[in-house]
Amino acid sequence: MKKIVSILIVLITISSQAQNKKWTLIECVQYALENNISVKQSELDIAIADIDELTAKGNFMPSLNAGAGVSENTGLSFNPVTNNAQTETFLSASGNINVGYTLFDGLRNIRTLHRAKISKLASQYRLDKMKDDISLFVANGYLQVILNKANLEVLQSQNAVTQEQIDRTTQLVEAGSLPRGDLLEIKAIDASEKQNIVNAENAIQITLINLAQLLLIKDYETFDIEDEGYDVVDGGIADKDISEILAKAKESRSEIKIAEQNVELAKKDVQIAKGANLPTLSAFFGYNTRFTNTSSFIQQVDPDNPTSIQQIGVVEATGQSVVGEFPNTILQEVGADPFIDQLSLNDGIGYGLNLSIPIFNGFATKGSIKRSKINLQRTEYQLEQAELDLESTVYQAYVDAKGSLKSYEAAVLSLESQELAYDYAKERYDVGLTNAFDFSQSKQRFDNAKIEVNRAKYDYIFKLKVLELYFGIPATELKF
User: What's the pTM value of the predicted model, to 2 decimals?
Assistant: First the structure.
């Protein structure tokens, strides 16, 4: 009984720990990269590229084919061994092995292999870009949850102050030091703050659900994140010159690498298309054998009458006949040879070379070459456009990071000013030198300043991480 109770306690403890688990940003990113459907689809693209590469390598190997057939013939049929027509029922079988090898095909096999390797590399770059995008989505969703939680803390702490003010104002109203309207004003502020708290709690739940859906986590009720220890961590990227960041982005970003590999793929397609104008030389070797169970006829000397005398001519002068002695042969039916013996007796081989020279195929090859060249031009334009887009994006990310930093610094200064104004208004209100309305306005500006600092802070963190990503720092190594 004690063992059962101990096991139940352990299970309850484990279940409680699982329910109270709070996900860190790194855990969320890693989980998303392992379970996101788009990432899995990109991984399948790499698997397909591996198969294409294996197939391209197989083109360099000889082809080997074997065949066999069995038939039973009734009536007039040709014996496959003697090639004689026979009117009877017999069983026959045949087998063959053929080997073929391409000696030259206009270098298309080599270029197809090169193309398969380039395609595999492009698939890997697409997977890297997908992981970067997913990591940014997760980071953005994660920081949004933290922002909403920070705003909730601001609202709750300020509402606690409001509760204290209600108690103090109630005492002053009952003592006749303040009018009852001030108490009603403070209570109206309390009701508005509680409504804002409810809205903030709903915002947290919504952003948590959005993040859980992005991670493909279905347990929305217990899902939560670690909301402590995240601050502005600048590794010096924001102080770097834009030209340095742009050069690093062109060197490391997957968008450019994908476009470059697409150009290389198009070049290989042009080469492969041109290879169709060259002759193809192949070699072949074949082995075949036959079997039949039907009997055959052979000529042999008659044992009862081995020789016969036949006239072979006449002496012209005398008219005397000239005779000769000849073997006396007869047709004798013999049974079929054993199966194994026939395989060696009836076999044959064939080998040679095949040369195919393309002369005219209705402009199909010419059209294929032109299409490949047009596609090459298109990919070159796409590469140029990708470089322009990346340059524009990096500049925008750089300006956004700089702007969000200034916005954050301005928000901090504003908060300091609003805090001083709030403290002054509170002191005046406590001694009855200002009314509740003016105090509530000062308090509301102070609350808004705190919320704005939170918004500017996490906006700057995210935009700074975007800039670091363009600088070549892997998404899984970004520090928050």
Answer: 0.74
